[in-house]
């Protein structure tokens, strides 16, 4: 075969290839060996699927529905190019009894459109909007594998890891952010054996490139016009944007502005002192000086006093994270979390908020049991010692590396504390 990403070479008998692939699939699920002539891209995907604990009789799970799905789709970057996908692929999908599908960067289906009867059949295997089709969830499939390997791919019949998907053939290509290069998701055609052709792979790849070109031409999405914005997650010094300018705030000013966005009704001087300073000896004069300096660098008239308050709404990345957690959009929440809130801050109220945000997200990740999301948290600086997350990850992705790290953490937990580390007695 000249192109390893194409499922069938010209002249191949689809029926005969299906019989060969079914035997190969049964061999792999029985003994773990991949016989010829399974393509390397498929063999590698089967192995990843097995390591992730996917079973051949599994099924996709629907993670978002109704209002939650609509809110998540509306925020996703690929929503901006859905009209293009429909224009280029919609008629082809409907006339050919195929489906047009678009997934996010975690291979969660956002849109599934096309021939009504085909869509109804696909619904029986949960190939529906809101369902997760990552390799780690349902094994080898074109959208999930395209996202996993970052390039266009076809998956033909029994090349699918899960048996109930094996009557189908799909072709997908990833769509990248033209500014950052990261994968935003994938566009997919799903249908019958006729899609196992070089032309369908080239077609889907061309559509993905067209979408990337359109995204490059579109102006970046902006917040509501003239609404100031505060970015404080994952940063020791918050970024304040307003009126076309960006300011990096000092740590103390970052803390003050975070707290005032949390209290639109305002805070008295005494309340701010308690919220900001561990040291009770700090005087109101010190706080007033900080507020005077902050007032000079913010938008004119934004910071008022008696009580101290913001006179206009300020959008914050903390608010975005909380909204996504409240709606159950855990994947979107994880994406919106670049790190803890003002991690170097020791202001008591900021410390409490930082812990609450982190605990809320990690609890949602553990409950979701998504190995990719758990792995992202566990391998981040803030999650490398998170025993509960490592235990959750080991339960669903028990690789040697994960088991080794979990064993090390549990050994540290069980180790006796040396006497030098004991707190000194205060008794006389």
Q: Mind explaining what this structure looks like?
A:
The protein has 428 residues and is an alpha+beta fold. The chain folds into three domains: 14-217, GAF domain (Beta-Lactamase, 2-Layer Sandwich), CATH 3.30.450; 224-352, Arc Repressor Mutant, subunit A, CATH 1.10.10.10; 369-414, no CATH class. The chain is 46% helix and 12% strand. It is built from 17 helices and eleven strands. The protein has helices at residues 14-31, 40-51, 66-75, 82-95, 116-123, 135-138, 142-149, 198-217, 251-262, 269-276, 284-297, 317-326, 330-335, 348-368, 371-378, 387-396, 400-414; strands at residues 99-104, 109-114, 153-156, 169-176, 183-191, 229-231, 239-242, 245-248, 303-304, 309-310, 315-316. It has a five-stranded antiparallel sheet, with helices on both faces. Strands 8-7-6-11 form a four-stranded mixed sheet. Strand 6 (229-231) and strand 7 (239-242) form a beta hairpin. The longest helix is centred in the last third of the chain and has 21 residues, at 348-368. The mean pLDDT is 89.
């Amino acid at each position: 075969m000249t192109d390893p990403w194409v499922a069938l070479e010209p002249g191949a008998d689809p029926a005969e290839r299906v019989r060969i692939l079914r035997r190969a699939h049964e061999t792999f699920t029985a003994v773990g060996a991949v016989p010829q002539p399974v393509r390397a891209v498929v063999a590698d995907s089967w192995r990843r699927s097995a390591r992730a604990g996917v079973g051949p009789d599994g099924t996709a799970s629907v993670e978002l529905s109704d209002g939650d799905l609509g809110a998540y789709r509306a925020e996703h970057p690929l929503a901006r190019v859905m009209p293009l996908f429909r224009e280029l692929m919609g008629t082809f999908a409907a006339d050919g009894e195929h489906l047009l599908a678009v997934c996010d960067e975690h291979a969660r289906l956002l849109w599934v459109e096309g021939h009504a009867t085909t869509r109804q059949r696909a619904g029986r295997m949960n190939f529906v909007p809101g369902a997760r089709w990552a390799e780690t969830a349902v094994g080898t499939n074109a959208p999930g594998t395209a996202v996993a390997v970052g390039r266009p791919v076809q998956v033909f019949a029994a090349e699918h890891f899960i048996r109930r998907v094996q009557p189908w053939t799909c072709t997908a290509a990833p769509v990248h952010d033209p500014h950052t290069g990261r994968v935003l998701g994938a566009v997919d055609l799903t249908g019958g054996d006729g899609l196992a052709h070089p032309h369908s792979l080239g077609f889907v790849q061309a559509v993905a490139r067209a979408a990337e070109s359109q995204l490059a031409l579109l102006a970046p999405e902006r917040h509501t016009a003239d609404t100031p914005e505060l970015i404080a997650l994952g940063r020791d010094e918050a970024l304040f944007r307003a009126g076309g300018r960006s300011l990096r705030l000092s740590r103390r000013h970052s803390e003050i502005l975070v707290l005032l966005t949390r209290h639109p009704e305002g805070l008295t001087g005494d309340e701010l002192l308690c919220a900001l300073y561990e040291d009770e000896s700090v005087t109101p004069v010190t706080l007033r000086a900080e507020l005077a300096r902050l007032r000079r660098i913010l938008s004119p008239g934004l910071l008022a006093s008696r009580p101290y308050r913001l006179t206009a709404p300020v959008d914050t990345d903390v608010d975005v994270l909380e909204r996504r957690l409240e709606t159950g959009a855990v994947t979107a929440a994880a994406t919106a979390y670049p790190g803890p809130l003002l991690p170097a801050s020791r202001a008591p109220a900021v410390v409490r908020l930082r812990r609450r945000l982190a605990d809320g997200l990690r609890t949602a990740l553990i409950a979701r049991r998504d190995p990719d999301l758990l792995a992202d948290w566990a391998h981040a600086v803030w999650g490398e010692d998170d025993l509960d997350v490592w235990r959750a990850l080991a339960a669903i992705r028990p690789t040697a590396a994960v088991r080794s790290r979990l064993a090390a953490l549990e050994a540290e937990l069980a180790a006796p504390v040396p006497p030098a580390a004991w707190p000194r007695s205060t008794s006389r």
